[in-house]
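Why predict the complex rather than its parts? Because the way molecules touch one another can change local conformation, and only a joint prediction can capture that. The input here totals 301 residues.
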Amino acid sequence: MSRVKKAFLKGTLLQFAVLLGLWLLLSGRIDLFHVSAGVFSALLVTLMHVRVNRHLYFDKGIAAGRSLRVVRLARYIPWLLKQIVLSSLQVAYAVLHPRMPINPSLVRFRVRLPNITARVILGNSITLTPGTLTLRIKDDEFLVHSLMEASHAGLIDGSLPRHVARLYGDKSADIVSEVKIFHKARHV
Amino acid sequence: MSGLHVAALVVLAAGSFFLLVGSIGLLRFPDFYSRCHATGKSDTLGVMLLVLGLILVEGFTLNSAKLLLILTFVGLTNPTATHALARAAFQIGLKPRFRRHDSGTSPEEKKED
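Output of the joint prediction:
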């Protein structure tokens, strides 16, 4: 059996296990009826999902280097939470300040990430961090709306993208390039 | 009142504070995109803190696990929805408004024209 096929089977089994675990967690009842209904539902959803999974594992563009390190995720999430708290305080300050010291801008940059999932993680992390908002992702080019200068500091020095790349074991220092900051929408 | 309840109260109050700030920002900010910042994000921390406070009250039970699931899904869907809104607005050509609080055209821009 090829390696991709093995990964596909493993992923499908994992999906079934996660779905069943979710069912047990939500129902909270362990008796024959509820558990067998859960097994049936999880199996049904997994079967319905086989075609999507096949796409995920066998399509080259999506499947390339999709080895997310779960251990690194355990370090990434607390780091992201800290960033969220810090920038929430910044935004709260701007909202409550009588003169409202905001200076919106558009930030465009290219970032080298291994696959689509990594880009989704980066895009969502940017949006989740207050003060920055992903407007557009075209291939490896991100367009971000930023509320204040302090908001996009972590983006253009590359620390947030670097953390995402590290999730996939990529430790190279400069993955962000062609940073451009706009204060007019015309030139974007 | 136990220490845990006090902690829960503090966390719940902080969560409410950030939700309130989000609503004030929604009213005060100048254009669609900056308002997206106010609603989409202050809500992230606000809702997270509220759910965290509820978990502290609830303790180590099945309900806490469900609350944790809510936390996860809010964290995943909230930025996705905000991005979808902002992207749709950007695609139909809504221009962000920048500093100098007139309607999108700055003095520099007029000079260039």
